[in-house]
């Protein structure tokens, strides 16, 4: 077994253009489907990487196509591929003249006819659209051991059973197989059986067996380990065009035992390995999600992580009332398969919800859309106010000002993020292939700047060094996005990479060696913007008992403050200090509200609290100038407050926050009365709202504002003269 680790293992990687038909809506003309992105690598790159990672030393890429442009596209990609440059395995394009091969059978006959390429031992044949993390060298060694013990074992066929990983959605081609319970010999293969149909098993399949194990819900991995004797079968029989036709003929033939060609059934899920095939839009969506969220390991590992409470997400397990859906999709919808949608050069209308979908190249996503569990292919445009959550953003996607990239997103290379787009802080990000600038021209212009690094390696090599001696090193250079004052800084990477956005949470199982192994989430190190004001205020401006209550209640507030409030306060504070427009700030706040599923009244009170904290009054300056500054600030942001204060409850919430600020912040005595008068003066509150709020009583007000009843009683006493004046003015008017 030790010697088996030193021999050369050959793999034939099949790129079959016939399998691209169901993916035609996702690719441009003459573009192979294997160049679709799998996060920020292509399917072809990942297949090459995974074969080499699995112990393959030589890879022959064979193209099945009758179009010269198709073969040329694969050839050009292999010449410029990062895997081809850095990998240790030899990679050769196996071509049949200027055009490709016509079938897998022709590929095998070409392999047999060339002495320099003909394998002397077992070899692998796998489809490029098969995404797996199998250890091919171990599987090949097991196949060789069976073949040496019994030469009739000439093939090992790989399957993946869905039921072992129930959180993987059951899309796609399920096959039914019959297996000998003792030897795992494949005796029956049916790729298209329907539920409820009758199944007839021939007598020669039963043989002397009394028991036959049927396996349903299987995914055919389109990956086989073959002995060299199989090449002789294809050389002597030109009727064999496809490998599965050859295997079914061997299985169904009455002379199967006589010819001695037996096929071994291997379920990768029983080994804790993963494999799924991309055969249509639905399966492409599922494979990309499985890859991005780390479902490439064993079910036992995933179960252990779940028991430990680590963030392993089960995105596609939804209750009946929350089924994956798509609503308000724009015109020119070109293709739809189950829960996955692909459209080309279409528009996602405003206020749409796009969930569990694939959006193809060139789609324009309008304002205020909600994008979740979705793959956005190349050159999409996401307008302001959109929320993108748990999505995969591919090359050249433009994120416009005011859009929100939420947690769990994987951002591909050359994504253009405009100024003002919202990126949550405190996450690990990765070096981009090129600098992410604020405009496409800048991005293209700065591409040459990042072509090399100090150690001579290319920073855009997302697969990293494939040398096993360096396998323990991170293939990415992680940096922590943090905030110092009001300027963004990133530690561990140069200035030119400050705007890099390769970040994702820890969604990958331990022990995996894949391009995204080292993704993890860091704790948010930003200081809370809800901290106290300066402690150097004049003691004559405050009552001593108020200061004591303020410190205690503020400490409690900081301990229980939610991420929503912290992020909300940070957004408002940034808008105030940067003097953003009310429209742009409203878009950011609306996106934040939708992301956390909050109501408008949850926003409006925090706007007022931030304005108060930023006013001179909060620094102990209680003169007329400070009152005027606060009045000017309220006038400045009046339109923003009114957008979220359209309901009675929202206006009541303004008074609740005013009361809370008057108690918790370091503010002058009788500030509550001053603040309410200012709010009334700028037409943010009406007499009716003030009277109804005061009539609720001290206990209700204390509960709503989270202050003590005695404090609420003092605030009402402060407000009583103003309420009396309003009542008298109303009587005179009547």
Automatic annotation (TrEMBL):
Instruction: Name the domain of life this protein comes from.
Output: Eukaryota
- Its primary localisation, in coarse terms, equals cytoplasm
Q: What's the short name of a Pfam family annotated to this entry?
A: LbH_EIF2B
Annotated GO molecular function terms are:
guanyl-nucleotide exchange factor activity; translation initiation factor activity; translation initiation factor binding
Q: Which UniProt keywords apply?
A: Cytoplasm, Initiation factor, Protein biosynthesis
| Localization per record | Cytoplasm, Cytosol
**Which parts of the sequence are annotated with region: Disordered?**
430-474
- What Gene3D superfamilies would the database entry show? 1.25.40.180, Hexapeptide repeat proteins (2.160.10.10), Spore Coat Polysaccharide Biosynthesis Protein SpsA, Chain A (3.90.550.10)
GO cellular component term of the entry, any = eukaryotic translation initiation factor 2B complex
Q: Which family does it belong to?
A: Belongs to the eIF-2B gamma/epsilon subunits family.
What is the protein's given name? Translation initiation factor eIF2B subunit epsilon
Biological source species: Cyanidiococcus yangmingshanensis
Query: What gene codes for this chain?
Result: EIF2B5_2
């Amino acid at each position: 077994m030790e010697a088996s680790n030193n021999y050369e293992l050959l793999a034939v990687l099949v790129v079959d253009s016939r399998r691209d038909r169901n993916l035609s809506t996702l690719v441009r003309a003459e573009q192979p489907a294997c160049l679709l992105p799998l996060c920020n690598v292509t399917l072809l790159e990942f297949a090459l990487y995974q074969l080499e990672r699995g112990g393959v030393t030589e890879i022959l890429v064979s193209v099945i196509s009758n179009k010269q442009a198709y073969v040329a596209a694969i050839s050009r990609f292999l010449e410029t591929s990062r895997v081809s440059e850095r990998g240790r395995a030899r990679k050769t394009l196996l071509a049949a003249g200027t055009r490709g091969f016509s079938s897998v059978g022709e590929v095998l006959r070409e392999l047999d006819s060339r002495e320099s390429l003909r394998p002397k031992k077992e070899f692998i044949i796998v489809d490029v659209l098969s995404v797996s993390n199998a250890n091919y060298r171990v599987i090949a060694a097991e196949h060789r051991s069976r073949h040496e013990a019994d030469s009739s074992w000439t093939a090992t066929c790989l399957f993946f059973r869905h039921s072992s990983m129930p959180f993987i959605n059951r899309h796609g081609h399920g096959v039914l197989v019959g297996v000998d319970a003792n030897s795992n010999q494949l005796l029956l293969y049916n790729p298209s059986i329907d539920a409820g149909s009758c199944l007839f098993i021939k007598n020669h399949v039963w043989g002397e067996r009394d028991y036959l194990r049927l396996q349903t819900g299987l995914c055919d991995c389109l990956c086989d380990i073959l002995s060299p004797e199989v090449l002789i079968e294809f050389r002597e029989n030109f009727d064999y065009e496809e490998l599965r036709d050859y295997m079914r003929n061997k299985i169904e033939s009455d002379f199967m035992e006589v010819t001695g060609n037996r096929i071994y059934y291997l379920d990768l899920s029983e080994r804790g390995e993963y494999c799924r095939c991309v055969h249509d839009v639905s399966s492409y969506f599922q494979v990309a999600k499985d890859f991005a969220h780390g479902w490439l390991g064993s079910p036992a590992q995933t179960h252990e992580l779940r028991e430990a409470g680590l963030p392993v997400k089960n995105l596609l397990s939804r209750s009946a009332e929350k089924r994956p859906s798509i609503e308000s999709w724009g015109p020119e919808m070109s293709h739809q398969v189950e829960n996955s949608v692909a459209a080309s050069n279409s528009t996602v209308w405003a206020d749409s919800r796009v969930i569990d979908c694939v959006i193809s190249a060139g789609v324009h996503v309008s304002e205020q859309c909600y994008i979740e569990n979705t793959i956005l292919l190349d050159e999409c445009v996401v307008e302001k106010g959109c929320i993108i959550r748990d999505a995969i953003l591919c090359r050249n996607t433009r994120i416009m000002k005011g859009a929100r990239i939420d947690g769990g997103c994987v951002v591909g290379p050359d994504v253009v993020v405009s100024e003002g787009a919202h990126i949550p802080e405190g996450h690990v990000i990765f070096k981009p292939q090129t600098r992410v600038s604020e405009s496409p021209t800048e991005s293209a212009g700065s591409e040459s700047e990042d072509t090399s690094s100090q150690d001579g390696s290319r920073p855009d090599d997302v697969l990293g060094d494939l040398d096993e001696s360096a396998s323990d090193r991170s293939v990415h250079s992680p940096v922590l996005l943090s905030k110092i004052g009001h300027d963004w800084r990133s530690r561990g990477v140069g200035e030119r990479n400050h705007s890099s956005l390769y970040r994702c949470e820890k969604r990958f199982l331990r022990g995996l060696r894949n391009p995204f192994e080292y993704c993890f989430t860091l704790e948010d190190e930003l200081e809370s913007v809800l901290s106290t004001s300066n402690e150097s205020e004049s003691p004559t401006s405050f009552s001593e008992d108020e200061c004591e209550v303020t410190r205690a209640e503020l400490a409690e507030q900081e301990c229980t403050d939610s991420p929503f409030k912290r992020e909300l306060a940070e957004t408002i504070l940034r808008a105030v200090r940067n003097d953003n427009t009310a429209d742009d700030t409203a878009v950011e706040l609306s996106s934040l509200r939708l992301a956390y599923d909050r109501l408008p009244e949850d926003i409006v009170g925090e706007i007022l609290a931030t304005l108060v904290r930023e006013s001179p009054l909060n620094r102990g300056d209680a003169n007329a100038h400070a009152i005027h500054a606060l009045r000017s600030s309220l006038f400045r942001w009046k339109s923003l407050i009114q957008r979220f204060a359209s309901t009675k409850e929202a206006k009541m919430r303004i008074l609740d926050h005013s009361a809370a600020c008057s108690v918790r912040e370091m503010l002058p005595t009788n500030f509550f009365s001053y603040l309410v008068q200012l709010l009334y003066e700028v037409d943010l509150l009406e007499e009716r709202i003030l009277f109804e709020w005061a009539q609720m009583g001290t206990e209700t007000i204390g509960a709503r504002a989270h202050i003590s009843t005695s404090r609420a009683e003092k605030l009402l006493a402060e407000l009583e003269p103003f309420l009396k004046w309003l009542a008298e003015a109303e009587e005179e008017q009547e």
